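ARCHIVE RECORD
Type: protein–small molecule complex
Small molecule: cytidine-5'-triphosphate
Source of inputs: curated submission
Record status: active
Notes field left blank by submitter.
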Amino acid sequence: MLAGKRVLLIIGGGIAAYKCLDLIRRLKERGAAVTPVLTRAAQEFVTPLSVSALAGEKVYTDLFDLTGEAEMGHIQLSRVADLVLVAPATADLMAKMAGGHADDLASTLLMATDTPVMIAPAMNVRMWEHPATRRNLATLLGDGVRLVGPNAGDMACGEHGPGRMAEPLEIVAAVETALGDGLLRGKRVLVTSGPTHEPIDPVRYIANRSSGAQGTAIAAALRDLGAEVIFVTGPADVVPPQGVQVVAVETARQMLEAVEAALPADAGVFAAAVADWRVARETASKIKKKNGQLPVLEFAENPDILATVAQRAKGRPALVVGFAAETDDVVAHATAKRARKGCDWIVANDVRPETGIMGGSENAVVLITEDGAETWPRLSKPEVAARLAERIAGVLAGN
Ligand code: CTP
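STRUCTURE (tokenized, with ligand):
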């Protein structure tokens, strides 16, 4: 139910704008109040009169409408809502949002708002798949914008593929999740992320190419579902999300210590690319070059954090999710890894350099569970995170 909630609905200029008439009805049926804003292009698809009649409220269309004494200013209008919903979010609106433009009422409201924003994209499949839209989407998700849809299917333009706006009821469900209590409210989830750095001497270390982007996106997606997130991160390239408890570590051994200190938890997601080995004897002073003599590094094995937690007799999280970075036979290796480590799920990915996954913005994963292997389409890392968080919520909500 959405009783007492107000949605500022920004309707973009696409054929899917007609679905917003139904969307307004559905939101109102559940008790929400809807303040509609139409872009200039949206008015080519739906009229302010029909939108206003369904919303039962004034429709805002023009930035300069709002300057009169009797009107609400745009700053105030952008803040009256519990959620700003952009539907349909056209490629152009997404680009404006990602670029921070403010040249009409809709984009100005989106810049001025301090309330959560959700987009329901709708566009031709080529436009959806265009690198510019992929970049803009990644920026928006990184800014904390929530996403619903788009769906795949036949489009008004005669093409087929992802780009259809989510159906009104799907959008309403996403709004309810965003404004409601959250499926993971009251659940504590531990997430490891990023690489570890294993020192050789005070100035050198061994590391790997993990950026921490996937683990960071997972922590944000779990937080968005209401979970209390403990985010144990190695030295990553990306900044940790807001609203989670960050524990910054450097080495695998520090990560294990931080993880054990954070337990108990309802679930653990082990996305970190932990170094398997460390240098057995870190020197206290910098190793100096000696004429023709090469240093010999001896290695020691690091503790396996995932296996340690998954195999705990007491205090094991109800759901333990590991990752598998593989370069060949992904499913076979990941399936064996699931058994060997004793975790419930493995999120496996192919990290051969040509996939561009490690350090990149997208991920193509296979989810290995006790039921077998499930191949997900190639998605942005935040989209993978959102799906995984929903799946985790599906398990924990029953507990
Ligand atoms: N992992 C861990 N501690 C380690 C090594 C790995 O917690 N010391 C976790 C990772 O966070 C990931 C999973 O184990 O969730 C698998 O990591 P991966 O590097 O793919 O596997 P390895 O254990 O290194 O196995 P292999 O070398 O056989 O690929």
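CURATOR ANNOTATION: The longest strand covers residues 319-326.
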